[in-house]
Design goal:
CATH superfamily of one domain: DD-peptidase/beta-lactamase superfamily
Helix content: 25-40%
Oligomer: single chain
Strand content: 5-15%
Distance between the termini: 28 Å
CATH class of one domain: Alpha Beta
Order of helices and strands: HHHEEEHHHHHHHEEHEEHEEEEEEH
Number of helices: 13
Largest sheet: 6 strands, antiparallel
Radius of gyration: 20 Å
Length: 367
Amino acid sequence: MRTTIAALALIVTLLCGISLAEKPATGPLYFPASDTWETVSCQQAGVDAKQLQAALDYAGEHNSGGVVVLWRGRILAEQYWDGWTDETTHPLYSASKSVTSSLVGMAIADGKIRDTNQSACDFITEWKGDGKTEAITVGHLLSMSSGLEGGRQNFLKGILSRDERGFATGLPVTHEPGTYWEYHNSAYRLILYLLEEATKESLQAYTKRKLLDPIGMTRTKWETKWLTEDQYTFLSTTPRDAARYGLLVLAHGNWNGKQLVAKEWIDRATKPANPKANPAYGYLWWLNGGEYYYRPLNPWKQQGPIFPGCPADAFAALGKDDQKIYIVPSLDLVVTRLGDAADSTTPALSKFDSTFLGKICGSFGKE
């Protein structure tokens, strides 16, 4: 078991052991205006404190650096390990994909992208003139159903490429777009270039102006690849900043009365984008409650929901080495977890998901 910083470990006990009678247990969501963040007790949330602590202990035993649990926007629990603090930044890896989904929704609302049916070649001009690639839409890229040649070998080649745009646009179309789901990192990253073409801003600047600054994600930024300045890869953030984004999505894109992302977009992005191909995937979001799902780089159908024991409406941003932003609307719950790989290196889904989130969800309704 990893060593827990004693002072920070007390945070969970304190929040779960005191009833804050002056604060209502019902009412509108709370949005933090600064680094000062209001808290809520387990008693108010109707949570079993021992079960919640067991979930956090499990996270600590599985290489977590930091965990934040929000209930209706307030901090229900927060814990750090091995020198981490609420200011420690860490890569989100592929959990950044879900943030990208929101940025596309913003660009559509801004009129920079017509809609998800627009051909991606309007922005990825290398595809013009080829009927197969011209058939790939913005929605196909968002739903991992572009039809571009995939497989483990291409997945690794794309990650290692110094020109991932050139690599991705040079891949052949092996499935009719929209008919086949495959977790395709290089196809996804074309969306980052697409956003820059559409908005006429750098991805860094657009993200900061439209998302990070309005909700106070002051310690978050895009990282670039191979020491270049034009190949963005993933966001670097803190557990608290990630929780702010999760709260925005829980609130259907509204931050303290200001609609930053259209409610209709959040609702659409967090529903199955292509149910026949993969009922557990939306627009770059992983969805619970489907009859089956697919793991990255694994063509075999997995039966059941991705988070067994959790409410069917749960959904998540999932990244390599267990970077997590879980959202459970029916419980008014947001959970973030950053750190090293819990069990083994995975692109997104892992055994950690159902156990950790299941323990947290299981603590509700047992006051």
